[in-house]
Design a protein that fits this description.
Blueprint lengths: L6 E2 L2 H16 L4 E10 L12 H14 L5 E4 L5 E8 L2 H14 L4 E3 L2 E3 L2 E9 L6 H18 L3 E3 L14 H9 L3 E10 L5 E12 L3 E3 L1 H11 L2 H21 L6 E4 L2 H5 L3 H12 L6 E6 H5 L2 H13 L3 E7 L6 H6 L4 E4 L1 H4 L6 H16 L3 E5 L4 H9 L4 E3 L9 H9 L11 H6 L7 E2 L2 E2 L5
Parallel strand pairs: 1-3, 7-8, 10-12, 12-13, 13-14, 14-15, 15-16, 16-17
Antiparallel strand pairs: 2-4, 2-7, 3-4, 5-6, 9-10, 9-17, 10-11, 18-19
Helix pairs in contact: 7-9, 9-11
Bound molecules: guanosine-5'-monophosphate (2 copies) and manganese (II) ion (MN).
Manganese (II) ion (MN) binds next to loops.
Length: 453
Amino acid sequence: MTQNISDLSGDAEFQLRLRQVVLAAQHTVKQVGLLLIGFDCPDHSLADLTRMPNFSDSVWTRLRNTLRDSDTVIRRENGEIAVLLPSVNGSDDVILVAKKVLGSLQEPLLIEGLKLDVRPRIGIALFPEHTSSATTLMQRADSALNSARRSKTDYTLYSHGDNDAQRSPLSMGQLRQAIVADQLFLLYQPKINLKTQSISGLEVLTRWQHPDLGLISPDEFIPVAERTGLIIPLTLWVLQQSLLQCRTWGERGIDVSVAVNLSMWNLDAQELPDQIKGLLQNIGVTPDKLELEMTESAIMGDPQRAIRTLSLIRDLGVKLAIDDFGTGYSSLAYLKKLPVTSMKIDKSFILNMERDKDNSIIVRSIIELGHNLGLKIVAEGVETHEAQDMLRQLDCDEAQGFYYSRPIPVDAMTEFLKTPPVKLTAQLTEENIMSTPAHGPMQRNGILTNPKL
Ligand code: G
Ligand code: G
Ligand code: MN
């Protein structure tokens, strides 16, 4: 089948072409390869440029010179570019093409007189290796592209383990709308000081109340926010709302700090320290009331840059925590250099530590390591009294988990922080907490009074 490179401009036409080549391949031992190319822009203020026609055109020209005439190229509305390889022997062939594509995009692209420094990421899926249906091939490539973006690798082959949530139909437009239309809201989950039994702070967790799809978890919308650049305004909104709430609590005599999650992209943004400083000043909250949490992988994406950004934030007096510790590919050399104040042990080690000896050994080692580095250690995913007791014995400083409270809305948290004790139970799900906002708190004046603690 020889045909000139088709510059198909609509997804519908692309699907048609896809069906053609899939039909043709079905009767041969050959496969169909799909490359989905996305562009990450280290300078987020320029990210919108990668969605402009000029940008697609430049990429287009580079690809035309690289690919075969029989390959189909399409510019997608979101600025991504899809390449269809109608007849390949297997993934090795497609990876070879992916490398050629990456090579052709190495020189910076000139857009509107600007040298645009972009990092192409490629998601790869094959028919019939990864799916037996033409219609889901694009979704597979999309999943693979998400993995490539998350792991900051140049290209990734679809793997059956890839999360379905990564194929979510959520769009940038919807998320942008959610931020302006107040569809996002915050939940709060307490951290407990294991020595004084008081609440040492609250983690802030964002939720999206979608008008049609209902409640959406951050596991679904944060990746969308990250790959569209919307994570920057989203995080600023979360910071602003959390600090406003912290101030309101302070005015009511409730002295509590808030911890906001950052993503890798936030650490790439050089203006973040100044923005945080501005928010603290304008809202009138002291820096010690704010903590920021980020995972090891968020830091290790570009450790030098992350250390620079984090140091500036730490200099403001804001506290910093490494989140989900133990799950990333941490480098002990960097760990020592990070200006962080605490370390949160990932819940996967805590959830079954009573039964799993390996996990309890890991937890013990992490606590020792963290303490040797002068860090405060927080255990996440504490669901039982036994886990709490073990952590106390291991000299862990703080704990967070369903044993104390699930993440709950602001009204419930306010009650929780100020009224008499009735322990929140793990049976309360987030959903029924939403419909029954006020319930029983377990502490007064910051001191837990439940005898089980
Ligand atoms: O609350 P839940 O367990 O569903 O959170 C799932 C994941 O989403 C966690 O890893 C949490 O850190 C992350 N998350 C929740 N809220 C935010 C947020 O506002 N910003 C970022 N970057 N991540 C968040
Ligand atoms: O990645 P991060 O640590 O930010 O994720 C925090 C999320 O972990 C919370 O929003 C909550 O949904 C989840 N979580 C908190 N405590 C527990 C717990 O005790 N058990 C389980 N399974 N999940 C928890
Ligand atoms: Mn966290």
